[in-house]
Write the C-alpha cells for this entry.
Amino acid sequence: MMCGEVTVSGSSVAWKRGRTLKQLGVNCRWSSIVVDERSARGDSDELLANAYGGLGGGGILCAGDRAPDAPGLVDAEGGTTLFFRLFGPTYHTVVFFAADVHCVAELLVALAECPPKNVRAVLVLPQGHAQISAKAIRGIDTMVTDRGRHAYGGYVVSEESPVTVVVRLDGIVGGIVLGMAGLRRYFVGVFGGAYGA
C-alpha cells in the first residue's frame, strides 16, 4: 500500500528534508556581536540565501548558527561525553580545536581577562592524539579527544589548522576565530568594559 512516497513498510523518504529547513531558518549570522574570521561576511542576497541552505549553502558552520552536538568525545579517564553536556546556560564555552596543546596557551590569556565564572574552556584533540589531564594545563576546564571525528567534521575544522569556536549561553556559535585578536574582539563585544577589567 502506498501513501504518497512513503510505503507502509517503513520507507524513510518522507523524513528527508533539504538544507532549506535546517534550524527552521533561525540564525544570528548578521548580529553585531558575532565574530566570524573564517566565513565571508556581508548582506548580499547570496549570503542570505546560503544562511538558509539555498544556492548550495556549502554546509559550513558560521558564527550565528546553532552549535551542533558531537557524540563520542573521550576524556582522559576514558569516559565519553557530548558537546551538549559541556555547553551551559550560565557561561560561554570556548572550544579550542587544536592538535598541539601549546597552540592554545596564548589564547588562554584572553580567557583570563573575562569576568570570573563566565567562560569555560574545552580543548578538543583530533582522533588518535594522546591526551593528558585537563588539570595539567592551566585555564583548560575540559580536554577531550574526538574519537569519531564528529566534532571536527560538524564544525568543519581541519586537524592542521587550529580554530577556536565560542558557543554562547543560548547554544548559538558566537565566534569562530583564528587567533588572539578575534577572540578578544568577541569578548569585548560581549562583555564591554568588564572584559579585561
